[in-house]
Amino acid sequence: MQSEYGKMMMWFFLISDALTFSGFLTAYGFMRFRYESVWPVAEDVFTHFPGLEGDQPLLYVAFMTFVLIMSSVTMVLAVNAGHHLKKTATAWWMVATIVGGAIFLGSQAWEWYHFIMGDKGGIELANSEVWKVANEEGEVLSLSQLVHGMEHGHAANHEETFTTEEVVAAFKANEHVVLQSPGNGHPAKSREASLAALQGAEVIQGANMEHNEYGAQQFANFFFFITGFHGFHVFSGVVLNVLLFWNVLLGTYERRKSYLMVEKVGLYWHFVDLVWVFVFTFFYLV
Amino acid sequence: MADHASPSGTGWIWKIFWILLVITTVEVVLGIIKPEFMLSPVAGTSLLNLVFIGLTLVKAAYIVQYFMHLKYELGSLQKAIYLPVLILIPYLTFILLFEGQAVFEF
Question: Is residue B38 located within the same domain as residue B84?
Fold first, then answer.
C-alpha cells in the first residue's frame, strides 16, 4: 500500500502552513508577555452580538467556531459520499460546506468592523500606553458617558467622535473618574496620578495599525494579521470548494471513478478549521 | 485509496462532531464564568489557561486523526507529518515565551 502522491503533497504543504501559523501565534505570545501589563483582556474587546444589547463576551466567536466545525463536518460527509461515488450527495454536502465558509467570512467581516469602529474609547498617554476611563467602583466608562454624563451618554461611543480637549476637560471636572489599565486585573491609577498622566495624552477611538483604543498596539496588529491571514485561507478554501462543486456537477470525478480531489481539498478545509481552533484559544480564551 | 481500516457509515462523523461541540461549549462556559479556584497562578499562567490549552489539543487531535483521516494513513506518512510539527512548534513556543518575559530585563 502506498500513499497517493497528491494527498501526500497536500500534507507537506499543510505542515509548512502549520509552521507558518505557529510562527505567528508564538510571536503573538512573545509580544503578549512583553507588554503583559497593558495587553487587552479579550472579553473586554469582543463583546458584541448582533441584535443583543450590552456585553456578550465570547458568544459571537463561539458561534463562528460552531459554524466552522459544522462546515468541517459537512466536508467529511462530502468526502464520504465521494468514496461511494454518490454524485448528488457529494454536490449537496459541498454546497453546505461553501455556505458554512461564507457565513464564517461574513461573521469575520462583522467582527472586524466592530473592532475597527471601537467601543468605549481609550486614552493614549505620553509613554504611548493606552488606558481606559473608569469610575471609583472600577467600572469602565465610555467617552460618551464621561463627556455627557452617565444619564445621557451611551455605553458605547457608536459614531460619535470626541476631541482630546473635551475629554480631558470632562475628566478634570468629574472627581470620581480615574485611569484604569486594560490589562489583566485592571489596576487603576490614583486620581492624582491619573491627572498627571493626562499631560500630553491623546484620545483614541477605534483600532487600526497605528492606534488601538483597547490597549497595547501590538494586540491590534496581531489581530488584523493573524485573523486576516486565517480569513484569507478560509476565502481560498471557499474558492477551491466552489471549483470542486462545479467539477462534481460536470461529472469530472464520476468519469475518473474517483473523488480523490474532494478528499485533498477536504484536507485543506479541515486544516483551516484546525488553525481556527488554535486562534480561538489564544486570541479569545487564554 | 483503499481505506480498509477506516470506519464505514456516517455515524462516526457525527460522533466526532458532538465531541468537538461539547468541548467547545465547555470552553466557552468556562471562559464566561471563569471559576475562581481555577485562576490561581500555576506554571507561569493559570489552571484555567492550562485547561483551555489541553482541551484545544484534544480538539486538534480529533480533527487531525479522524476528519483528516491521519489515523488510517501509512505509519511512515504519519511520522513524517507528526514529527516536524511536534518537535518544532513546542520548541519555538518555549523559546519565544521565555524570551518575551526576559526581554524586559535588558
Answer: no
The residue of chain A nearest to residue B93, with distances taken between CA atoms, is: A26
pLDDT at B1: 44
Which part of chain A is CATH 1.20.120.80?
A: 5-118+217-285
- Which residues lie closer than 8 Å to A195 by C-beta, 6 or more apart? A171, A172
* Chain A environment of B74 (Cβ under 8 Å): 1-3
Residue B35 and residue B78 share a domain: no
For residue range B61-77, list pLDDT tens digits in order.
Answer: 999 999 999 998 899 99
Verify that B86 and B36 share a domain, yes or no: no
Q: What pLDDT was estimated at residue B105? A: 66
Q: What is the pLDDT of residue A252?
A: 93
pLDDT of residue A73: 96
- The per-residue b/e assignment along A126-157, b for 16 or more CB within 10 angstroms, e otherwise, is eeebbbbbbbeeeebbbbbbbbeeeeebebbb
Is B39 in the same domain as B56? yes
Give the ipTM.
0.90
Minimal C-alpha gap between A71 and chain B (Å) = 10
Q: Residue A32: closest CA among chain B residues belongs to which residue?
A: B100
With contact defined as beta carbons under 8 Å apart, do A211 and A118 qualify? no
* Residue A16 touches partner B, C-beta closer than 8 Å: no
Domain span at residue B90? 74-106
**Which stretches of chain A score pLDDT less than 70?**
1
Separation in Å, CA of B17 to nearest CA in chain A: 7
Length of chain B: 106
pLDDT on residue A231: 96
Superfamily in which the A5-118+217-285 domain is placed by CATH: Cytochrome c oxidase, subunit III, four-helix bundle (1.20.120.80)
